[in-house]
Amino acid sequence: MTRPAISILINNYNYGRFIGRAIDSALTQVGPAAEIIVVDDGSSDQSRAVLEPYRDRATLLFQENKGQAAAINAAVKASAGDILCFLDADDWWAPEKLASISAAFDTDARLSLVYHRLQPAFSDGTPTLKPIPRTLCSGDLSPRLSKSAGCWPFPMTSAIAVRRSAWKAAGDIPEQFKISADFWLAGIYPFLGRVAALPGSLGFYRIHENTWYRSVDDAAMLRKRMSHWIATVDVMNKFLSSNNLPATLRLADHYPYRVALAQIEGGNMRTRVQLAMQGIAFAGEPNLMRRMRDALRAAYHLPSRGRKLQWAEETQ
To answer: Residues 6 or more apart from 56 whose CB is under 8 A from it?
Structure first.
């Protein structure tokens, strides 16, 4: 059989109500030859029944529940393409996604990662909010990430494609990333090669209530994110050190972490000013106007220190 140019890797856990649309969007792509690998990570819903009719058009793998990283690792192991494109089961792509990704990789052999924006949309397909990420970053991003604890306006999993050669250099995604494997992909691969950002929204990010998304953040969710950021910085530093890459990430440079901590602890006017200044100087956001907007918003919405306990208790 002809080796596929691209491998489409779909990870699923209890998204039987969504995954059909994800696979259909992969099947209707225009452009280079592609294979589809679907890994079901121990779903207990109707996922298997939804997946079985696709068996003649996709490789279906079923495993015990181990988390997103393990599912993606299994998909990569079963794949053969030179370009790896990731798709979460609750998202879907525009038809021209693969053609655009392939063309970008063809233009620069030094690229390790290519990405695009995603358009947030409700389950009925209605767009909402602006495409994400707002700021696009291309080129050698390693100096920027070294100053921001690996934080930048990075794409989510369904917008990311990497070279297989870069995957081999990085190794499997650490299985501690049971969710948010995009933190690893977007954090490590810029240290292994150049990055290219495509300006179009070539996919759709489904807005629905799940374990990570909330329309309004609460203290419990902020603590969950902070723990995830701490673990991410730690594992990235171990990777950088073991591969003799000249970078050490500091959690103090991770502005979203500092904002979350301030929101939980509360603050006074001095805290607000410090938070605003830190945000304006944050290396992870290249766009000055967005840095200023985000910094001022964080300072303005910071709860006062006297209110922080009540706020935290009410939202747990």
So the answer is: none
Question: In what helix (H) or strand (E) does residue 69 lie, and over which residues does it extend?
Answer: helix 68-77
155 contacts: CB under 8 Å, gap ≥ 6: 115, 116, 117, 118, 132, 133, 182, 186
pLDDT at res. 4: 86
Tokens representing residue 206 in the block: 């489904």
Q: Determine which helix (DSSP H) or strand (DSSP E) holds 7, and give its type and residue range.
A: strand 6-12
Give the Cα separation of 60 and 10 in Å (integer).
Answer: 10
pTM above 0.85, yes or no: yes
115 bridge partner residues: 160, 197
How many CA within 13 A on the CB side of residue 271? 18
- Mark 61-75 as b/e (b = at least 16 C-beta within 10 Å): beeeebbbbbbbbbb
Q: Nearest-5° angle of CA 214, CA 156, CA 127?
A: 65
Tell me the two tokens of residue 145: 């990430």
Q: Which of 153, 118, 149 is nearest to 25 (CA)?
A: 118
The pLDDT value given to residue 309: 38
Q: Which positions ≥6 away from 143 have C-beta within 8 Å?
A: none
Is 44 within 8 Å of 14 (Cβ atoms)? yes
With a cut of 50, which residues of the chain have pLDDT below it?
211-212, 308-316
Summarize pLDDT for 98-148 with one digit per residue, the tens.
999 999 999 999 999 999 999 999 988 899 999 999 999 999 999 999 999
Closest to 40 in 3D by CA, of 3, 5, 4, 78: 78
Domains defined for the chain, CATH in brackets = 6-206 (3.90.550.10), 219-315 (no CATH)
